[in-house]
């Protein structure tokens, strides 16, 4: 149920859910019906709660001449989506802010202004109106489209250093850089904002209510960025929103930093909604983490660059094995439960891969246009072959062959995969057994790739993400995931991060680049080709 809100000057009018714009007389009529003043707050937004639980947040610096339309949704869990429109189709998908719920919340000068390291920077604080466009490839008459609030420090903060009790939790699968993000949240809070009380949550979400906390300070995190994994431990499952928020409330925690993938960010959104319902002055910030790069909107997730770089070692080994034997095949399985970004980018980086198989691009084995036909052709051409397959690819073929219909799930509800690498290796060996001498070596570096420390580029990425999260929380922003959008750090509403999974779009130019680098066929049957043409959707968020 969405209410269109037309407001003029200092008043707010609520109209029945319709997108029509009201005439002045109707507006006057509604004004009398809803005639109420909205408490002024110290920011551009003022909030108003109706008994229906709907909360509308409007910006009040509107002049009569330039009425804006604010579309709000009262559907849970995004009860306070803040969408502001502007000229030429400008849309800001803003994030919640402390002042939305606590209009009289005190603010303090940002201690950074007295910090020697930052005082030399001319324009260190981010301007209130700085926003970042989601789409940067535009035409002269394109509408300006969706923007997100730019990350960074603001002039005023909503926490006094000694009042802060922050906690950090890591959830889901491992990813290079987890420890760097933990380290830089601790360093950012300590060095930039003088915060001394920071807790680690032990073992993922369940640690909130089932474990003691871990003390974090500059000393304990000093060199953790050199190790893979997470010093806090992680887990899947165990997200009990009530128990988690009870623990946050009982412990007096007022800042929660959640480092995790798409599942964790959904968990963060649920925690934020519960905190809001309880009217707790607690900030919740998500730092997106996934080796699969399956989180939408952001340019890429931290750890992805390291994972692609690490995958090169396995692909190179596969290439050495394949070229050392007659009709040698080196087959490498990489991570990618639902999204094939690692396999795609590792293949493009290597230039030695003859065939890349990902979950988003269906393939079949037997018959004309199938994988076996292509292997036969490639071995005849060059006598060796390297195949890279994402662990989520071909699961349908495997389930069919094993006559398995039930899909097992992990504690978080993610699909538990069969080992496609082992299965397809056996199928290839069986198929060519009577046709030619073939030597196939199967390499599975999946966990090796995600358990390593982050490389230099990801370390910088982790540092800036962590600092942006700290700046945002201290500035009173709430219920956001921090993320790089077109090279700029932004605060993204949870609902945008959790609305879908980022997948390789096989009608995108990037996939075409891959096909032209491996010269593999599309492996699509005619029916799939028609279906995929219908799939032409948003280009993937990979900005290449
Ligand atoms: N829809 C959801 N609502 C609340 N909590 C969730 C939801 N989905 C997942 N979670 C919780 O978030 C945590 C992490 O989820 P999950 O295991 O899916 O990993 P992830 O965060 O997606 O990371 P990765 O994909 O990198 O493994 C788990 O504790 C899980 O219980
Ligand atoms: O960590 P687990 O439970 O073995 O799950 C492995 C999955 O986690 C990921 O590493 C991240 O989601 C996937 O690439 C992989 O399929
Ligand atoms: Mg996930």
Brief descriptors of the model:
11-stranded mixed beta sheet, 544 residues, alpha/beta, binds 6-O-phosphono-beta-D-fructofuranose, 22 strands, single chain, 4-stranded parallel beta sheet, 19% strand, disordered N terminus, binds magnesium ion, binds adenosine-5'-triphosphate, 33% helix
Write the layout of secondary structure elements.
Layout (H helix, E strand, L loop, with lengths): L1 E6 L5 E2 L9 H10 L11 E5 L5 E5 L8 E6 L8 E5 L3 E5 L3 H4 L6 E2 L6 H4 L11 E3 L11 E6 L5 E2 L8 E5 L7 H16 L4 E3 L6 H4 L3 E3 L1 H4 L19 H11 L3 E6 L1 H16 L5 E6 L15 H20 L4 E7 L6 H10 L4 E3 L13 H12 L1 E7 L4 H7 L18 H13 L6 E5 L2 H5 L5 H19 L5 E6 L2 E6 H4 L11 H10 L7 H9 L10
Parallel strand pairs: 7-10, 12-13, 12-15, 15-16, 16-21, 17-19, 17-20, 18-19
Antiparallel strand pairs: 1-2, 1-5, 3-4, 6-7, 8-11, 9-10, 10-22, 13-14, 21-22
Helix pairs in contact: 4-15, 7-8, 9-10, 10-17
The structure holds adenosine-5'-triphosphate, 6-O-phosphono-beta-D-fructofuranose (F6P) and magnesium ion.
Adenosine-5'-triphosphate binds next to helix 8.
EC number: 2.7.1.11
Main location: cytoplasm
GO molecular function, one term: ATP binding
């Amino acid at each position: 149920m969405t209410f269109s809100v037309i407001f003029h000057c200092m008043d707010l009018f609520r109209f029945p859910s319709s997108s029509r714009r009201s005439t002045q007389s109707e507006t006057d009529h509604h004004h009398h019906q809803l005639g109420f003043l909205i408490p002024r707050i110290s920011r551009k937004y003022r909030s108003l709660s109706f008994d229906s639980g709907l909360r509308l947040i409007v910006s009040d610096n509107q002049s009569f001449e330039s009425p804006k339309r604010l579309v709000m949704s009262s559907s849970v869990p995004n009860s306070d989506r803040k969408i502001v429109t502007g000229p030429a189709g400008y849309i800001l998908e803003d994030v919640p802010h402390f002042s939305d719920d606590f209009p009289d919340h005190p603010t303090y000068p940002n201690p950074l202004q007295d910090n020697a390291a930052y005082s030399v920077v001319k324009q260190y604080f981010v301007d209130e109106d700085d926003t970042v466009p989601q789409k940067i490839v535009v035409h002269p008459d394109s509408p300006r489209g969706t923007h997100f609030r730019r990350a960074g420090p603001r002039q005023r903060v909503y926490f006094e250093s000694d009042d802060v009790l922050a906690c950090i939790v890591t959830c889901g699968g491992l990813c290079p850089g987890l420890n760097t993000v933990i380290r830089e949240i601790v360093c950012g809070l300590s060095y930039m904002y003088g915060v001394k009380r920071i807790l680690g949550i032990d073992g993922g979400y369940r640690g909130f209510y089932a474990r003691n906390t871990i003390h974090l300070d500059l000393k304990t995190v000093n060199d953790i960025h050199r190790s893979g994994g997470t010093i806090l431990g992680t887990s899947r499952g165990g997200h009990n929103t009530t128990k988690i928020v009870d623990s946050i409330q009982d412990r007096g925690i007022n800042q929660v930093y959640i480092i995790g993938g798409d599942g964790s960010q959904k968990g963060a959104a649920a925690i934020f909604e519960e905190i809001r319902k309880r009217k707790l002055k607690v900030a919740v910030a998500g730092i997106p983490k996934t080796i699969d790069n399956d989180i939408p909107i952001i340019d890429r997730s931290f750890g992805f660059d390291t994972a692609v770089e690490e995958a090169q070692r396995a692909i190179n080994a596969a290439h050495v094995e394949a070229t050392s034997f007659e009709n040698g095949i080196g087959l490498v399985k990489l991570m990618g439960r639902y999204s094939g970004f690692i396999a795609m980018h590792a293949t493009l980086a290597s230039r030695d891969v003859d065939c890349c198989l990902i979950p988003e691009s269906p393939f079949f084995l037997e018959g004309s246009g199938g994988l076996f036909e292509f292997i036969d052709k490639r071995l005849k051409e060059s006598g060796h072959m390297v195949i890279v397959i994402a662990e989520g690819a071909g699961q349908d073929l495997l389930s069919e062959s094993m006559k398995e219909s039930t899909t097992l799930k992990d504690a978080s509800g993610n699909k538990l995969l069969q080992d496609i690498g082992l299965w397809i290796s056996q199928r290839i060996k069986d198929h060519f057994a009577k046709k030619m001498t073939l030597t196939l070596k199967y390499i599975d570096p999946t966990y090796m790739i995600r358990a390593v420390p982050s490389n230099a580029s990801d370390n910088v990425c982790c540092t800036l993400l962590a600092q942006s999260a700290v700046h945002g929380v201290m500035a009173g922003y709430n219920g956001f995931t921090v993320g790089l959008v077109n090279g700029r750090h932004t605060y993204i509403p949870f609902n945008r991060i959790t609305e879908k999974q980022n997948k390789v779009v096989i009608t995108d130019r990037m996939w075409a680049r891959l096909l032209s680098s491996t010269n593999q066929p599309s492996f699509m049957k005619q029916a799939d080709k028609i279906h995929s043409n219908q799939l032409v959707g948003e280009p993937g968020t990979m900005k290449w």
